[in-house]
Amino acid sequence: MSRATQAGRLPADPMRPVLDGRDVCLDPPATAQVWLGTGLGFSDVAVPGVRLARGDALVAVESAVLGPDDRRAVAFRGGVTPPVVLGSSAVGRVVEADDHARAHDGRRLRPGMRVVWSCTVSCGRCVSCHRGMTSACASVERYGHERTRRSWQLSGAFASHVHLRRGTTVVVVADDVPAAVSASVAGTSATAAEVLHRASSILAVGGVPSLVDQVVVVSGAGAAGLVATAMATDAGARVVVVDPGEARRERAHAFGAVAVADPSASTGSHTLSRVLASVDRSGRHRTVGLAFDGGAAASALVDHVAVGGVVVLGSVVVPGSAASGTGSPAGGRTVSGGRAVAGGRDVVVAGGRLAEGLVTLTGAHDAAPERLASAVAWSSEAWRRWPLESLVGGTIPLDEVGEAFAAGGAGADADDGLIGVGPAAR
User: Fold this and answer.
1) 300 within domain boundaries
2) Mean pLDDT across the chain, nearest whole number?
3) pTM higher than 0.90, yes or no?
4) Separation of CA 12 from chain center
5) 381, part of any domain
6) Of 189, 185, 155, which Cα lies nearest the Cα of 173?
């Protein structure tokens, strides 16, 4: 439990600005698994307290999720600078909150509220934020990716507590939603919602986004791809899932896929062209392609969507991306000379096909506040229809995070399965 006391101004500290706020002392101290760098592993660090500035909140982690974003961050090191507390997707309960801390729906955050939060902290004032592109904020910071510093030690979800800063989208979740479902919302469901929103908005009829009666091709049957499959199905679309793994293709049926295809098949019933013909012989409804794997299959989506279709690349953090502070446009992807980079892999696109087919190629990374809120609303009732809990393959204690990274591997080709990370022993 915590004991919070109002405090005056802190002594001058050249490392951080002096701000009015609230000191929150934790007894016992909060604990965090800090990644020290390649070859150095993880270290258990105690944090006896935090100082909440205006609009900040402190959350006790109920459950976090270790996913591909965390694995690739460690492997590439381009998106993180150790020492760092990893983990960007979790669910928890508010312990303390500044009087100005608000949930997305305007409610004041109060102790005991069960919440999830966005992967990013944005300023809300820059041009990108005003355009709704918070992941491209001029001063964006990411939970689980920022170097540990005195004013923000609990900056990742692989800890007993997370310090939520002003500029974070916080959404209240119901108590009856399983932790495995809520913990993966920010990193999986919200990403899928953002990708689908981008596609449906481009296809909007009469200004109203819609996927009804459309054929959606999802490339990549990882967690985000499967959630997108279920979301698109709920939106009235017919979904075809493309993945090289037979077991993953079969699993897609449980999330609403009407058909599956093998991207490596050049002949036979599992080729993408034959599968699409069986679902939509006219080809007029094959309007949406969603690529979550960044592999060669993504480039095939451009060739298979109908005239006026849209292909959305759902990206991950990669070296040189905007999320790591260097290089390419926001979203971890670049488009130049007919070549798009998504998920760290090149997707070659024929420019003539885009022009002649009136095909829109776009990308999405992280989720706007509205999409996080809609993902929470959707998952809060969709987990009863779809096996969303099964996307998290078991839960490990917080102090075994380092062992999970060592055993599971990392990198662009690492398994994209999700692992639950339980709360620290108190």
Assistant:
1) yes
2) 84
3) no
4) 37
5) no
6) 185
